[in-house]
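Fill in residues.
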């Protein structure tokens, strides 16, 4: 699923359309709400139901984002975001019941029980065979929050879109 953001009265081609998959959009929109709650706080940015900002709101948000980018605070936010994600605990894999070997009907049908592990995973697990497609045979998976990337470049692309969109709708 993706978030398609359409410019309402674009002044350039760049202002016509901005897209993020849902995983990238949420951290971006949360960042916008955190920086400018007076602009973004009432916008339903978690759905693609057509909510958005008018021309002045989009321009104002672009200024906020460009200022944050220029100051280096967005780069610092990205670094802290990734640090926080990297420190999240890993969780037991539910597909293999944390064994690293998917032995349910899917695992058996797909040959996961007999599959040879990569040399790197063999070192981690201490075994040579038995794999799980969810945890790569380790028995642990990353926290779900690790699936939501944040990047300074995504903020910049969104700010550039905002500056030229004439207002937007999230569809």
């Amino acid at each position: 699923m993706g978030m398609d953001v359409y410019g309402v009265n674009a002044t350039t081609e760049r202002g016509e359309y901005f897209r993020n998959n849902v995983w990238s959009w949420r951290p971006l929109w949360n960042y916008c709400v955190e920086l400018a709650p007076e602009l973004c706080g009432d916008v339903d940015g978690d759905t693609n139901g057509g909510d958005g900002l008018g021309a002045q709101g989009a321009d104002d948000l672009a200024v906020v984002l460009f200022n944050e980018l220029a100051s280096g605070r967005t780069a610092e936010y990205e670094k802290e975001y990734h640090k926080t994600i990297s420190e999240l605990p890993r969780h037991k894999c539910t597909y293999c019941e944390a064994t690293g070997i998917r032995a349910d009907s899917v695992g058996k049908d797909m040959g996961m029980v007999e599959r040879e592990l990569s040399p790197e995973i063999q070192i981690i697990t201490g075994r040579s065979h038995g794999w799980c497609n969810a945890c790569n045979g380790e028995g642990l998976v990353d926290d779900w929050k690790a699936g939501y990337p944040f990047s300074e470049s995504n903020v910049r692309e969104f700010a550039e879109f905002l500056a030229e969109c004439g207002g937007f709708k999230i569809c």
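The chain has two domains: 2-86+146-170, 90-141.
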